[in-house]
Amino acid sequence: MISLLASLLIKDRHNYLSPKVRQAYGVLCGAVGIGLNICLFLGKWLAGTISGSIAITADAFNNLSDAGSSIITMIGFRLSGQEPDPEHPFGHGRMEYISGMLVSVAILVMGFELIWSSIGKLRNPEPIDSSPLVFWILIASILIKLYMFYYNRTLSKKMDSAAMRATSMDSLSDTVATTLVLVATVISRYTGFLLDGWFGILVGFFIVYTGGSTLKETIDLLLGQPPKEEFIDEIRKIVLAHSLVYGVHDLIVHDYGPGRVMISLHAEVSVDGDMQEIHEQIDHIEHELQEKLHCSATIHMDPIVTDDREVLAMKEKVEEMLHFLDESFSMHDFRMVKGPTRTNLIFDVEVPRKASMTDNEIVNWLKERVHELPGSKYFAVIQIDHEYY
Question: In this predicted structure, what is the pLDDT of residue 91?
Fold first, then answer.
């Protein structure tokens, strides 16, 4: 149904990185979710009233809250698709993350509410009237929620959307909840054991776990996560494919919401190269990154020595020291500045966040090794950089 509606209502529907397309999908899925959840609420409320089951009634109101979550998702996608303004120059893309967080909070609230009402059912158990109509309503609810999980999960993967993932997990938790309610109803019908309260608590804990997991994911996105390794590798591949670029460092990825990624990096170029030609190639790389990876790029040119044998030999020695210290460390911006009594070796060291040594320990160790080089006239001037990926 979603695919059919998308083909009819969404222009360029396969361009999932487009903010307008994402907004259209969010509104469409939200509207469908509202309609289906209201239908499920009415059906389960009827089943709960007929059977007297607290678990079925609680599940019904859970679906009503899901309709509210769908409204939040719709509003979030609508806001995230707005154009940048003076107060928000990088756009409103993170509203999608905020809507996902609110959906997660709604899931948590419903989970705790279900646990509390189920404890009350344990204290005052009542027999359940399980008519065939109740069974069919629950089975239909499970099938509908499975479909909602499927289309939200599929779109969340295509769009890399935290809000869609939260909604899909909400649908999955509802599927599990309704299935357990159905099992409890069947057991009560054929054995006489009143398991309604126990199964309600079990469902409640599952819903709380689901809500907590999706809440952590959306908070991580809001706080800022490292980009995927595949994305970093693709950036390096594109930049280093150009003949005038010798290396890449100081790469930073800024995520302002889905489809609103900005990157900055330093590209190493020859100090003796034609600056106009190099600048033209750097401009071309920025456009290529925009076209292939759908991100805005700002590239700083770092001139390096590429044909001085003494400098290159010394650079190789320092790199050997660095890799002896830790294979994951890398070096860039290497320069030799000769004076009348000493030669300064100036360079930056890029260190992963998970490094076991402190910045001072790294600097002191390297300074000692550099000073031990033949002649004892070399002194290291070191800047520590940390990876942001």
Answer: 78
Does pLDDT of 267 surpass 90? yes
3-state helix, strand, coil in the chain (%, to 5): 65, 15, 20
CATH 3.30.70.1350 maps onto the chain at: 226-305, 308-389
Query: Which of 153, 154, 155 minimizes the C-alpha distance to 169?
Result: 153
- Taking only the tens place, the pLDDT of each residue in 78-129 is 777 777 788 888 878 788 788 878 878 887 887 888 788 778 777 877 666 6
Specify the DSSP element, H or E, that contains 248. Answer: strand 247-255
Q: Are 181 and 43 in contact (CB under 8 A)?
A: no
The strand order across the sheet containing 343-351 reads 330-338, 343-351, 378-386
pTM: 0.67
pLDDT value for 256: 84
If we measure between CA atoms, which residue out of 33, 198, 50, 28 comes closest to residue 106? 33
Pick the CATH number of 2-223 from 1.20.1510.10, 3.90.980.10, 1.10.287.1080, 3.30.70.240: 1.20.1510.10
Joined tokens for residue 317: 């020695």
Strands 261-270, 295-304: parallel, antiparallel or unpaired by DSSP?
A: parallel
Q: DSSP for 142-170, please give it.
A: HHHHHHHHHHHHHHHHHHT-HHHHHHHHH
* Pairing verdict, β 295-304 and 330-338: unpaired
32's enclosing H/E stretch is helix 19-51
User: b or e along 153-191 (b: 16 or more beta carbons within 10 Å of the residue's beta carbon)?
Assistant: bebbeebebbbbbbbbbbbbbbbbbbbbbbebbebbeee
243-257: average pLDDT: 88
CA distance 327 to 325: 7
In angstroms, the CA 315 to CA 218 distance is: 44
pLDDT single digits (tens) 47-90: 878 777 666 777 777 777 777 777 777 777 777 777 778 888 88
Can you read off the two tokens belonging to residue 66? 């899901």
Element (H, E) at 128: none
